[in-house]
Amino acid sequence: MMIEMNIEAPLKKKKENFSEWFDDVLQRAELVDIRYNVKGFVVYRPNIMFIIKRVYEILENLLIEKGHKPALFPIVIPVSNFRKESEHIKGFEREVFKINEAGGKELEEELILRPTSETAIYPMFALWIRSYKDLPMKIFQSVSVYRYETKATRPLLRGREFLWIEAHCAFTDEESARNQVKEDLEITKRAFHEFGLPFLMVEREPYDKFFGAVDSYAFDTLLPDGRVLQVATTHYLGQNFSNPNVFDIKFTDKDGIKKNVYQTCYGPGVSRIVAAMISVHGDEYGLVLPFNVAPFQIVIIPILKAGKEDAIMEKARIINQNLLKAGFRTILDESNERPGEKYYKWEMLGVPIRIEIGDEEVGKGFVTIFRRDLRSRKKIKDEDIIDNILNLKDLIHEELEKRAWDEFNSSITSINSKEELMRKSKKAKIVRASFCGRKECADEIKAETEGLEVRGRRIDIKETPSDKCFWCGKKATHIVYLAKAY
RNA sequence: GGGGUCGUGGCCUAGUUUGGUUUAUGGCACUGGCUUCGGGCGCCAGAGUCCUCAAAAGGCUGAAUGUCGUGGGUUCAAAUCCCACCGACCCCA
To answer: How far is CA A148 from each of CA A100, A112, A158, A259, A295, rounded to the nearest angstrom?
Structure first.
């Protein structure tokens, strides 16, 4: 049974002005406070930290399951470490924070705040790795990193401090390292399944690689304003960092010969993943969280009536206890607010399921179960509550994920020519086209289309291009996806 | 990197055009009370930048001084005009 509700929404529709909606929901749900007085830095408030901790937990568990071990490296890196890999330094030096003074004295050697930790971790790898028996070495850390972004900063989407996990691995040979990249992709796919987020899994074009990588792979998701957001990357580093001219990470192999390791690194962006979940699933009533991510999965609202308070509260407490025993994260809202006020509050925070218990529920032996995603109600008999929720949680997740993927897939438009692109450019969010692979072509596209970027080629499926590049008409080598990006 | 718009109590907003009658308008949120609860109801009252002083805590009262992002300037007089800085948003490269 569904009940139609014509209730004024606290937020505007996100499709009308995503930017405004996003800022508004961050404030109304008390997620981040942007008033901290340093540009590009925000305060993460409790409501979002509970979500962030769940995201970390999901990703860390997947990594640990695959044999990664946690570690924690210093936030400061000596400039001399940082300069060792020439491409790496070239890419990052313009956006690092530097410390050159402490205790009122100039430091002997300048330190940087990690923009990423290759140059902090790999010198230690060089000390730790001695034998092929030490390999593979798989280490990760959950930290914040610092980049002096010059483009406009946005809370969660692009900050000068952001949260992520970085996993760093070393192997005896190229094949093992390349397999690690595949494993990283699998981990990301599984995690994104939990998050209910759609993605494009691509290999970045050669000129668009991570600074210091041999090959770069990335996950892009799509925000409601039509721009894509890179939410995770994994890189095959080869021996770029391990060779004798850089960190010289070497081991003695079975054959007694000293060899340099092959490496990979992997970085899912936690701030951005949370931003994407907020943006993709949320609506004009606030957050909509996937069941497994939600810090609270079920909220129980007692609706008191004069003279019946005790019976109503007792039923609410019993049901709360039973749900806790069944393993759900629940909360019983016993505050003095009116029921309507509680509905708005918990809907804003995205709790997937709400159970309402009032006089009628007590008298007739049922509860009212409300789904946050559809905002619909059903009456469920007391004895069926647990079964119903077990069923409902899968259903909710399935539908949430499907809605997101449908929206995502319908945003991809295939294009055969420049003219077609210009004609459809208003509608097309993600563009699929045959491409020549030249950087000059990509630059030209970006300049002439208000920022459409070549994001790369898909790696989950093989796609055969037609013979001509859609833009320049020269020979096409592969199919790429293009989008405006954050 | 270039250009534009903007910054007023916790949040949003009126006032800026034409400097003075503003001890800054209204709403939300907040505090106390009534209301006792099926979508954030209604009514009453309060407080609402910061600091200092007097009075034994709190409350209350009174006084001086200040206040519209920060600092400086013009002026008898500045939220309002000018300059610089900081920050936000949008557009372009």
So the answer is: 16, 12, 10, 37, 32
pLDDT tens digits for A103-138? 888 899 999 999 999 999 999 999 999 999 999 999
Residues A192 and A115 grouped into a single domain:
yes
| CATH code of the domain containing A198 | 3.30.930.10
- The protein footprint on chain B, as nucleotides within 7 A of a CB, is 1, 10-11, 36-41, 86-93
β-strand partners of A259: A251
- ipTM score: 0.83
The CATH number of whichever domain residue A393 belongs to comes to 3.40.50.800
Separation of A14 CA and B2 C1' (Å): 31
Contact by Cβ (8 Å): A305, A335: no
Does the structure show a pLDDT above 70 at A203? yes
In window 233-292 of A, residues with CB < 7 A from nucleic chain B are 285
Check whether residue A272 and residue A375 sit in a common domain.
Answer: no
Q: What are A251-288's pLDDT values in tens digits?
A: 999 999 999 999 999 999 999 999 999 999 999 999 99
Q: Distance from residue A22 (CA) to nucleotide B78 (C1'), in Å?
A: 37
Is residue A323 domain-shared with residue A468, that is, in the same domain? no
CA separation, residue A414 to residues A59, A411, A424 (Å): 33, 10, 10
Residue A287 inside a domain? The answer is no
